[in-house]
Design a protein that fits this description.
Elements lengths: L7 H18 L2 E4 L5 E6 L3 E5 L2 E5 L2 E7 L9 E5 L18 H4 L7 H13 L9 H9 L1 H9 L13 E2 L2
Parallel strand pairs: 4-7
Antiparallel strand pairs: 1-2, 2-5, 3-4, 5-6
């Protein structure tokens, strides 16, 4: 299957426009010289696995790759680089599942992806999961998850369930 692609000159202008929008946004990021790879730093609460425990993590790193098919559907890839225990992020490789990528439209931007990632951290969707264990944990322990994300003291773990700890 051949993926659609913008003409080279228009694609380059689009990449420059994306970079300018990101610079003006105040988001923390680095981009490669070709403007096709962004490493985003997010300062939002999330959960990660530490050994057999679930811990709060407040800083995250995410890679956004703009493929040659960008800005068409299938032209963007998002990978979580730091450990994250989350229903919509596969633990083994950091693959991210958000509807924005599945329902991609040409008018969406790198900045809209960054904002969606922040929203995903705050509002995980355990019913559309890449990480079933995290989805089950979030669905079975909504109060504990919200308490952990809010920085409240965790209750002792129930037998056989991960304990939430704070850094």
């Amino acid at each position: 299957m051949i993926m659609p692609a913008l003409p080279e000159e228009i694609w380059r202008r689009r990449l420059e426009s994306e970079y300018a929008e990101m610079r003006e946004s105040g988001e923390r990021f680095e981009a490669n010289a070709a403007l096709t790879e962004y490493t985003i730093s997010l300062r939002e609460p999330g959960l990660c696995r530490e050994g057999g425990r679930i811990a709060r993590r407040d800083s995250h790193s995410v890679k956004i790759l703009l493929l040659r098919a960008y800005p068409y559907p299938g032209g963007i890839d998002v990978v979580w680089l730091t450990p994250l225990f989350h229903p919509n992020v596969r633990e083994k490789d950091g693959k991210v599942c958000i509807h924005l990528l599945n329902d991609w439209a040409e008018n969406q931007t790198v900045l809209s992806v960054v904002r969606s990632l922040k929203h995903l951290l705050e509002y995980p969707n355990p019913y559309d999961a890449l990480n079933k264990e995290a989805a089950d944990y979030y669905a079975d322990n909504p109060d504990g998850v919200q308490a952990a994300l809010a920085g409240q003291v965790a209750k002792p773990a129930e037998p056989g369930k991960p304990r939430i700890v704070f850094k």
